[in-house]
Amino acid sequence: MRVVLLGTAASGGFPRWNCACVRCDAARDGKLPARGPECAAVTGNSRDWWLLNASPDIRAQLTAAPALWPGPRHTPVRGVLLTDAEPDHVSGLAVLRDAARLKTYAAPPVLAALAPARAGLDRHAPWEWADSLTEGGFVLAGGLVVTAHPVPGKPPAYVPGRSSDRRWVTVYRIEDLATGRVLVYAPRVSAWSGLLEDLVADADGVVLDGTHFAADETGDTGRHLPVSGPTGSLTALARHPGVRRIYTHLADSNPLLDPTTTARAQISEAGAEVLPDGTEFAL
Ligand SMILES: [Zn+2]
Q: What is the band of 65 on the pLDDT scale with cuts at 50, 70, 90?
């Protein structure tokens, strides 16, 4: 299985267009590596690629990833697996609108929230829309078998009213049928759980929500599991030293964006990684 990290920043990318914080300024000055909104791609056979989320920067992200360039006749991108309905995860679908027969998987409330956008996209080129939570999972072209697992999370702000649906956010387990290798893609996680513990224990690699290094980094607490602290993800990941552990979805408040920080040294020492956009790795 090959994986490309197309984007590794939280909502808005890094630098954010309307932010003049120290780190965003440093990224604008070229002193820290810029990052696009979180998004990745995966393949089991190097011919059929599947996007994990579709960021608003997807055009630039695909242009920067030679493995995903179109061949003489068509694109190797077969479809998209959405983890949720957040604008930074779905707005890239509009960029992909002229590709025929793309197949997009998402949980039922996400598909419902996207109904108006889907109607518009289907008028450009008919797509297939599928329930990611279908019983027993699903098989992707290229020999990947996928199961989606709901984790606690709220609907995006553009969805009106209150929702009692508990399937707004999902984590994907992707297994290469030929090799048995497993990737867990979990860019949005609000708490560690028995489910995550089991998924990671059984995986060869995990790409995990690293939005905030510390719980009190911003006023926005509770939406994302912090990296550090006694209940942080780094402590949980330490129980799985044999698994490749990569953080993504980094907010501009996160010191992990700066390779010279003690935060970065701390995760390296623990065996976890922060990688630049465009990084490809094999599992
Ligand atoms: Zn900033």
A: very high
C-alpha separations of 61 from 6, 7, 37, 108, 167 in Å: 5, 7, 9, 27, 28
CATH number at residue 141: 3.60.15.10
Question: Which residues lie closer than 8 Å to 238 by C-beta, 6 or more apart?
Answer: 270, 271
What range defines the domain where residue 40 resides?
2-282
- Ligand 1 mean position, distance from CA 147 (Å): 35
Number of domains in the chain: 1
Per-residue pLDDT reduced to its tens digit, 128-178: 999 999 999 999 999 999 999 999 999 999 999 888 999 999 999 999 999
23 CA from centroid of ligand 1 (Å): 6
Ligand 1: distance of its center to the CA of 190 in Å? 22
